[in-house]
């Protein structure tokens, strides 16, 4: 009996080891789909081949990149493409020791990050872990060219050479959508280029004046007006009410969600004789591009209290669609004195 149990355990271990890392997947060859299991290796470098089996008990097949059109595993989609890339070294080079990029040609599986009828975006990671991005539009498949390397000049001073040909390539690719502007400062990052691809898809899908108007509005200064209410706290009189109105000037998206704001508030104390008003001028910014965004304010305020005091102001909070907001603010008359301000508000964006 003991031998039977041991044999069963060994069999289970063997099956588990044999099927390790094989996940359900799909390959496409000659337009036909084949379901099965693919060995998922969380590729840090783009693979030239994969291991595939129809079932966990079936023989493992090694499939080269030029054998199939694409495969899907672990919610990742890879397409087979023949590429010609240049491998750059991280080592500095000089006129006495020139370094020539090594061209590499062959079929690889490129990961698909964006694919539709208008434009596709692929990524390849070479054996030196260099990132290569490719776009495909109107059947034209091309690498977005970017290089950065350390060089020595004629005086043997080390400097960084950076070539951003991809900016011109993207401008050409998106030229038929005038609402999309490719900035000179666009970083060679998959996420940044992916945003442009999404904008291009929307532009081509809508093909309407609404998309252009929306993009133009983001590129212009606009303003918001709003109201708020809340409590302010101090050690002498406990919690007290505050109400106010604000005018906010929103800068274009190229200024990274920054704004300036003028605000007037009325502070209601437990004792009417201690009521006072105040005005403030802020500069601030929203972080991120989601509907819910944190924000940060800094500025100064003036209060018509008995002593008519000026204060430095620091505020943090979260907003929804840059309209509804919840904010904590510190009004500091000095490093030791001041009061806290908690409020909720609504800004109407024009």
UniProtKB/TrEMBL annotation:
It comes from the Bacteria. This is Outer membrane protein with beta-barrel domain. It comes from Arcicella aurantiaca.
